[in-house]
Design brief:
alpha+beta; Beta-galactosidase, Chain A, domain 5; TIM Barrel; 2 domains; GH97_catalytic
């Protein structure tokens, strides 16, 4: 750390990462404007960039022209003190070093090291008698910083008009981006230069059930970039609590990103009360793409676990009554008789069943039987509760009650049947974004779950938010998501929220958050398809904040086989679908296809049965965003490893050693790979399975087809088990 003195006042500070590769410099520029920069091994990562916030003017006095006249605001009484971005002086600086190792309840590794050097700068704004703290934490793999607003008399309740945090790029980097939006992240990724974003935005902005764009150069985090000189740079945020989600808006002439917060119904970006904190803004950087994937910065910048008892939180592998509805083979709704329903008034006993309702007792039992036979933990059932006939697109307040089943879904019978088979049913709460209604029913819904043996719930927020005018990613909704998570913990329920804000590491603090969607998942393969390189990008973007309920495991790629009217195609080989259980990390993994499809390919299905969902260690073997990801993970409490590779439409040849295995031991490696003629479009189900013996000295060269991949189970074995197998 270096301190420069001008006239006896600290004006600049330098902070180094523990290994010295990263250097952050902080100073006040011009009229007391907070500014920072970041370098990695001497290369510019963030050029000098401004920090601060602009506050909304406080309301003026209300006057009357006369008692019958029209009221008006006296603008002379407005508070002009809207700047928290200039006129600062440095009042104090504190530096410290922190180093701990902590163990997550579940995760990619058993142990996580949290090692950083910290600089906390207290800034005084003398003309307003206000002060803020900007806290920087510099890790070996990146930077985190946030704004802190201590208790003080002149900054108590305040409204954010704009957050003015800048990230000035050092060049016209290659970026992997989705359009900035207040309501959805469910877009395909675009790869382009930063300067090309504006011209490509219209094509990238595809239709969604709820969406609100804000700029032709606005993009979302986590944003992945690569510089021409080989630096991998990721911009995101951590610990999003009581604040608005951050998008990024690009000044494409100067290559400067500025934070762009999601507004509320009044257009405000946040209502705060000191003392309070902003989320951390994060910059992860390395000259090795694997370091981006292995980074724990997002988790480390969150608070430790706040739940005293975590014994009930268990990773889950599940199947579900879901894909058949997504493809249009079956329906969520029980009947086609009602153009609309009113809960408590509509009499379903008088309705004619449509014959396609999937969530019926007999059919769910079939799924329970399949789960029990193949060792799955739970069965998700969607469409079990009344109200699906008019649930979407009507801005309907009282849309679901989350406790009343359709006539053909017997809660008690299925509860007892699942229990007898050693399987749990996973609850589904689609809110239709009627958030007031969900909160109104939440206690009753969670109590219903507890009484009937459900310990996990998939929630959904499809459509525009009620209260009307609020956005999915605004402060009000972020507070709701956390409220639902805390309330679920009260009932010992694990939560998997879809259409919610993308994760920012809160699963460290509340590990019952075992999943989120918050990106374009497998369901879009039935809605026209995802780009083949999609799964090579998500680990660098969406998953930087936490695991994704991506719902892999599709074996039948031609959707017309399920629904003749749906001509979508899953852009993946079958072997890659297996690999996703390893490359797309999550403690919540679904085998998303239909049981009858798995029965056609039981040899390949074996990998899904075998693969773990919780890990002691993870090794990123090779990675390049948009091209390929290969990772090896060690199953929790065992010596068994699982390896996965996902590749783009260009395919990929991997060559690697098994040096992560224990020396002196032998393992049986079962390799599930693309056949020579496999292709994500024309020959998706062509795969091979072979078994070989491997040690920590073994070396493998394996080809992934276009849009393909491979999956390998590596199981410790004795001499008798390896007899007759080829040694690699």
């Amino acid at each position: 750390m270096c301190i420069c003195l001008i006239g006896g006042i600290v004006s600049a500070q330098e902070l180094k990462s523990p290994n010295g590769n990263l250097v952050m410099k902080f100073s006040l520029q011009g009229n007391g404007v907070p500014t920072y920069s970041l370098t990695y091994k001497g290369k510019d990562v963030i050029k000098p960039s401004k920090l601060g916030l602009e506050l909304k003017r406080e309301g003026g006095a209300y006057t009357f022209d006369n008692f019958e006249g029209k009221g008006q605001i006296d603008e002379s009484t407005y508070d002009p003190k809207t700047s928290l971005y200039d006129s600062f002086s440095i009042a104090d600086t504190k530096t410290s070093t922190f180093d701990e190792t902590w163990q997550p309840v579940w995760g990619e590794t058993k142990n996580i090291r949290n090692h950083y050097n910290e600089l906390a700068v207290t800034l005084d704004q003398k003309n307003t008698d206000r002060h803020i703290i900007i806290r920087f934490r510099l890790f070996d793999d990146g930077l985190g910083f946030r704004y802190e607003f201590p208790q003080q008399k002149n900054l108590v309740y305040f409204i954010i008009k704009e957050e003015k945090t800048q990230f000035a790029m050092a060049g016209d980097h290659t970026a992997f981006w989705i359009p900035g939006d207040y309501d959805t992240q469910e877009y395909d990724y675009t790869k382009s230069k930063l300067s090309e974003i504006r011209g490509l935005m219209k094509e990238a902005y595809t239709v969604n059930s709820s969406q609100t764009a804000f700029s032709p150069t606005g993009v979302q985090t986590a944003l992945m970039m690569k510089s021409d000189d080989g630096l991998y740079i990721n911009l995101h945020e951590a610990a999003l609590v009581d604040y608005s989600l951050m998008n990024l808006n690009l000044d494409d002439k100067n290559m400067i990103f500025e934070s762009w917060l999601t507004p509320d119904a009044q257009g405000n970006k946040g209502h705060l009360q000191a003392p309070c904190l902003s989320p951390w803004r994060t910059v992860i950087v390395s000259d090795d793409a694997r370091d981006i994937l292995a980074s724990d910065i997002t988790l480390n910048l969150n608070e430790p676990c706040k739940l005293e008892d975590v014994s009930w939180i268990k990773p889950v592998k599940y199947i579900g009554v879901w894909w058949e509805m997504i493809t249009g083979k079956s329906t969520w709704a029980y009947t086609d008789d009602f153009p609309s329903v009113k809960l408590g008034e509509t009499d379903y006993s008088k309705a004619k069943p449509n014959g396609k309702h999937a969530a019926n007792t007999a059919h769910v039992k079939e799924y329970i039987d399949f789960a029990a036979k193949h060792g799955f933990d739970q069965v998700l059932v969607e469409g079990w509760n009344v109200g699906w006939e008019d649930w979407f697109g009507n801005s309907k307040d009282y849309v679901f009650d989350f406790v009343t089943p359709y006539p053909d879904f017997n809660v008690a019978e299925l509860r007892d049947y699942a229990k007898s088979k050693g399987v749990k049913i996973m609850m589904h709460h689609e809110t239709s974004s009627s958030v007031r209604n969900y909160e109104r029913h939440m206690d009753a819904a969670y109590k219903f779950m507890a009484e009937n043996g459900y310990n996990s719930v998939k929630s959904g927020y499809v459509g525009d938010i009620i209260p009307r005018g609020e956005h999915h990613y605004g402060q009000w909704m972020n507070n709701h998501y956390l409220y639902a998570l805390k309330k679920a913990a009260d009932y010992k329920i694990m939560l998997n929220a879809h259409e919610a804000s993308r994760p920012t590491g809160l699963s460290r603090t509340y590990p019952n958050l075992i999943g989120n969607e918050s990106a374009r998942g497998t369901e879009y393969e039935a809605f026209g398809g995802n780009k083949p390189f999609h799964t090579t990008i998500l680990p660098f973007t969406r998953q930087i904040g936490g695991p994704m309920d991506y719902t892999p495991g599709i074996f039948v790629m031609d959707i017309a086989e399920l629904n003749p009217n749906n001509h979508s195609h899953v852009n993946s080989t079958l072997a890659r679908q297996l690999a996703l259980y390893v490359t797309m990390y999550s403690p919540l993994q679904m085998a998303a296809d239909l049981p009858e499809h798995y029965n056609r390919f039981l040899d390949a299905f074996q990998f899904i049965k075998d693969v773990a969902v919780d890990w002691d260690d993870s090794k990123y073997i090779e990675a390049e965003p948009g091209s390929y990801v290969t990772v090896a993970r060690k199953a929790k409490g065992t010596n068994n490893w699982f390896i996965g590779n996902t590749s783009s439409e260009e395919g990929h040849t991997s060559t690697f050693t098994f040096d992560f295995l224990d020396p002196g031991k032998e393992y049986i490696a079962t390799i599930y790979a693309d056949a020579k003629d496999a292709n994500y479009k024309t020959n998706t189900q062509a795969y091979t399975i072979r078994k070989v013996v491997v040690t920590n000295k073994s070396k493998l060269t394996q080809v992934a087809a276009p849009g393909g991949g491979f999956a390998i189970s590596v199981i410790e074995a004795d001499k008798a088990a390896t007899k007759g197998l080829k040694k690699l």
